[in-house]
Structure formats: C-alpha cells, structure tokens
Specification:
58 residues; mainly alpha; 67% helix
Length: 58
C-alpha cells in the first residue's frame, strides 16, 4: 500500500470515528500512529536503543 493510500484511509476513517468519539483529533496523520506506538512501547519498558532500531533509526 502506498503512503498516499494510507493517508487517505486514515483521513476517511478518522472522520467517521470522530462522529462517535470527539476525542479523536481532527487532523490525523500516519506518523501519529508511529509516534503513539513508540511512546507506548517506551513507557512500558522497551529499551530506547532497541526502540530506535525497531523504528529504523541509525
């Protein structure tokens, strides 16, 4: 799936979810999910060096 398709998918379903839950931000981006998962893993004990490798950082 291309990055453009992912973006369209997130925007489409994000607006549908927002009608049910107003806590969902108006502007959603694919990078928000990457950041949220990384923060969740880090706050639950994943070592920072392992997390950075998992994210593909050098």
């Amino acid at each position: 799936m291309s990055p453009d398709n992912v973006r369209k998918f997130i925007l489409k379903y994000g607006s549908k979810v927002r009608t049910v839950n107003r806590d969902v931000p108006e502007h959603l981006y694919p990078h928000m999910f990457r950041h949220s998962i990384a923060m969740h893993l880090y706050s639950n004990g994943m070592p920072l060096l392992l997390l950075s490798e998992w994210l593909g950082h050098v």
